[in-house]
Every structure is written in C-alpha cells, then in structure tokens.
Amino acid sequence: MSKRCYYEVLGCSKDASAEELRRAYKKEALKHHPDRNQGNPRAEQTFKEVNEAYQVLSDEQKRRIYDQFGFAGLEGAASGGPGDMGDVFSHMQDLFAEMFSGGPFGFGGNRAPRRGGDLRVQQRLSLRDAAFGCKREVVVHAPSRCDDCSGSGAAAGSKPEACSACRGTGQVSTARGFVMFTAPCARCQGRGQVIRNVCKSCKGEGVIAKPRKVTVNFPAGIDSGQRLRVQGQGMPGPGNVPPGDLYVEVDVEEDSRFERDGTDLVTRVNVGFVDAALGAEVRVPSIGPETENGEEPTLTVSIPAGTQSGAVFTLKGQGIPRLDGRGRGCLIVVVQVQVPTALTSRARELLTMLDEELRLGAEDAEGVSRRRVAASSK
C-alpha cells in the first residue's frame, strides 16, 4: 500500500508552523494510540504513520528534503542509526508525558498523581430552599476508603511493595520498529505495587461499598439543571491517590402557587367581580420565609377599580434572589376575575337592576359625548 503524504497524515498544510505540527501530532497520536484502540489493527497502523510523519516533519533538515524530493529523498535518511531512533523516542516521551500525565500512558519518571473517578447524584429542593439557599446532607452510595487498611489494600502491619515487573511505574514498554508502545503492567494491573498480605475487609481493593453523607451548601437562587461540584467527595483512587469530585445536580420541585421564569415568579390571584369593579386590597402569596405561626407569607396588592381579568401587576424585588447576589427578580401577579355562577333569585334581580343602570349610564355618557361633538362642530 502506497504511503500517504505526511502532511495529510497529520492533517496539516505544507506551510504549517512547528507548533501547529506539534499540536496536530498530539491530537492524532492521542486519537489512534493502541492502548485506546485495543483490538483495532488499523488504529495501530495509523499510529505508526503519525509517528513516522512527525519524526520527519519535526526535523528541519528532513522536512526540507521531503518537501523537495518526497519519500525518495528520505530513503537514505529514514534508515538512519540510533540517533534518529532517539529523536523519535524523545518526541514521544515529551508529548505523551504531557498528554497522558496522570493517566495510564505514562513514560516513567515522576508522573502527576492520578485521582479517583467523579460521582454524580441528584438532589431535590423546594422552591423556597432553592430561592434562599440551604444546607443539605446528600447521601452518596459509592465505594469509600477502607478504614482497616487506610485504603492501601494491605493487611494491618504490612504495606504494598513496588512491582518488580514494571519497577513501580505501573507500565511496561515494548519496542516495535522505531515506535515504543506502552501498556499497563499485567502483574500489578497498572498500580505499580503488589500486595502480598491482602486486607480481609476490602480484599485488597482499598475500598468498601457503603453509603455516606456529604454536607452540601446550595446557594440562594439556584435552579433546576444547575450543578454543584464538591471537591474530593467522589470515588477514592487506587492506593493513596486523591479521590475524585462529587457533582450534585439540582432538581427544584414545582410549587402550586408560582411559576418560575429565571429570577421572576408568576402567581395568579382570583379577584371577585365586585372587588374588580370597585377596587380592593387583595393578598397574594409570597416566596418569603414562613411566618412565626407557620402560615404562608403574603403581600398586599392594590387592585384599582375597573380591573379586567388578565391584568398584570409587577412587584419588583419580590422574586428569586440572583445567584450573583445582585438583588432579586420580580413577582408578577396576574388577575383572574371571578364571575359568579350560582345565583340566588335576589342576586339575579340585583344584577339585572345593575345591568339596566349600567346601560343607562352608558347611554347618558354617549348622549353627552354626541352633544359635545355637535357643539364643537358649530
């Protein structure tokens, strides 16, 4: 099979800078690394092509030869001695150490410490708790560090020993041509340590599955779908590496009194026919804290005479506090005028009289209006 253009292999243009070549190499090497594509021979072949391409294009002299003469110009240089091989290993060590720092693809030396996996839980809050913030104990069902062995996995009075197969690195390397492949050590499963006397409580795992409580502070103004990170409360890592983080996803319960729109609250209040016609002071629900006697808090809204159903009144600063602490949203009150349905004979008589009176008033008003128009036209 004919070779692909080195620039095509790395996905770069021919005028790419050294830094652009380096970034492209990191991306492609990470994508096609055999340890991430086990059982995929095509990925292994592409990984070799990526390393070969970068070996040539990262060397200024070889790149000039390749740009001018193509693969034919490299036939002599490509079979160079140990110096060329050392260059390849140097590139791979530097780049992969940067890419996989703390992961399973280290190249020995002082690797950055790994950490345990992250956990995710969901916590339901009432609208009032979400509005004003609260502190809750969240129950996490996940493995926890074994107390008997302090997470080491070794029985009391003993400790893990460095693996002789990988010399404590957790990795073994195999050279295939001029490419160095690494994989987790089979003897220690990539931990770099072996346990001769296993802890009976955790059977050498260093963790035991048990529920635990984590105190979480929910800030005022938090909403459904938002997530909090509690550092160090996730899965414990292998050995004594730091644990991961706990992510708490918030789900705010619906409240029958309000509809939430960001930091604004919408509430609907029923107003009697007479109050809407004559005007009145009405009480509307509030999101504030409960009163001392346990009753729900309310606010007073002035309804002017002649208020129609669907009228909207906005109370500023009575909504949900903003997460940044800069004030609160609005409480939007939507009026729904209640029309009486069950009428006594006396109520029906009075409404009929009211209707006649309103009609006369409308006719009088219309007559006055006509007289004014006639007078102004003369």
UniProtKB/TrEMBL annotation:
Principal location class: cytoplasm
Keywords tagged on the record: Chaperone, Cytoplasm, DNA replication, Metal-binding, Repeat, Stress response, Zinc, Zinc-finger
Residue ranges constituting the CR-type domain according to the UniProt record: 133-211
Zn finger residue spans: CR-type: 133-211
InterPro entries in the record: DnaJ (IPR012724), DnaJ_C (IPR002939), DnaJ_domain (IPR001623), DnaJ_domain_CS (IPR018253), HSP40/DnaJ_pept-bd (IPR008971), HSP_DnaJ_Cys-rich_dom (IPR001305), HSP_DnaJ_Cys-rich_dom_sf (IPR036410), J_dom_sf (IPR036869)
SMART domains: DnaJ
Residues at which Zn(2+) 2 binds: C163, C166, C185, C188
Subcellular location, record wording: Cytoplasm
Residues bound to Zn(2+) 1: C146, C149, C199, C202
Cofactor note: Binds 2 Zn(2+) ions per monomer.
Pfam families xref list: DnaJ, DnaJ_C, DnaJ_CXXCXGXG
Stated role: Participates actively in the response to hyperosmotic and heat shock by preventing the aggregation of stress-denatured proteins and by disaggregating proteins, also in an autonomous, DnaK-independent fashion. Unfolded proteins bind initially to DnaJ; upon interaction with the DnaJ-bound protein, DnaK hydrolyzes its bound ATP, resulting in the formation of a stable complex. GrpE releases ADP from DnaK; ATP binding to DnaK triggers the release of the substrate protein, thus completing the reaction cycle.
Quaternary organization: Homodimer.
Domain characteristics, as noted in the entry: The J domain is necessary and sufficient to stimulate DnaK ATPase activity. Zinc center 1 plays an important role in the autonomous, DnaK-independent chaperone activity of DnaJ. Zinc center 2 is essential for interaction with DnaK and for DnaJ activity.
Family indicated by similarity: Belongs to the DnaJ family.
Protein name: Chaperone protein DnaJ
